[in-house]
Design a protein that fits this description.
Layout: H1 2-19, H2 32-38, E1 44-52, E2 55-64, E3 67-75, E4 82-91, E5 94-103, E6 106-117, E7 120-123, E8 128-131, E9 134-137, E10 151-154
Parallel strand pairs: 6-9
Antiparallel strand pairs: 1-2, 1-10, 2-3, 3-4, 4-5, 5-6, 6-7, 7-10, 8-9
């Protein structure tokens, strides 16, 4: 009796599957104009580094239409090292980005700013405000770009 019940259930299930209409999904074409438009501004990858006096700062960034993302590493003498990602934009020869990193087991973010001048990035400093684990500049327009650790453009294959 059990075998008959299982066999009947299998036949009914199979029959109900065959009766369903099959649905096809039509592929959507993207017009060539839109595809070509997206590729008119290719992204570029640039690397910058400061390495002196026992401190090292490295930035590898991808720039597409002044939208920047990348990896930033600080290995400052006698301090904990930080490595994280940046995401921001370039405006008026200044890179303003949010740096997200792990420090002592906690994820934190802080705003970073670099002046782009003569194949160098000069980090900007100024008054900051803290909100939870996030640090932001109080007034970006008043930053001081006189860092003594300028990052020079280097070959990314290094």
């Amino acid at each position: 009796m059990k075998k008959f019940l299982i066999l009947t259930l299998a036949v009914v299930t199979f029959a109900s599957c065959k009766n369903e209409e099959s649905q096809s999904i039509e592929p959507t074409e993207i017009p060539l104009k839109e595809t070509a438009k997206e590729n008119t501004h290719p992204s570029s990858t640039e690397c910058y580094e400061y390495n002196a006096d026992g401190s090292k700062v490295q930035l590898k960034m991808t720039n597409k239409d002044n939208e920047v993302s990348g990896v930033l590493t600080y290995e400052l003498k006698e301090k904990d090292s930080n490595k994280g990602t940046i995401k921001g934009e370039i405006k008026d020869n200044k890179l303003i980005a949010v740096y997200t990193f792990q420090s002592e087991g906690t994820e934190s973010t802080r705003e970073v700013a670099f002046l782009m001048k003569d194949n160098q990035l000069i980090e900007g400093y100024g008054e900051v405000v803290t909100e939870g684990n996030s640090v932001k500049f109080k007034d970006i327009s008043s930053l001081d770009y006189s860092s003594n650790m300028p990052l020079s453009k280097v070959d990314c294959q290094k």
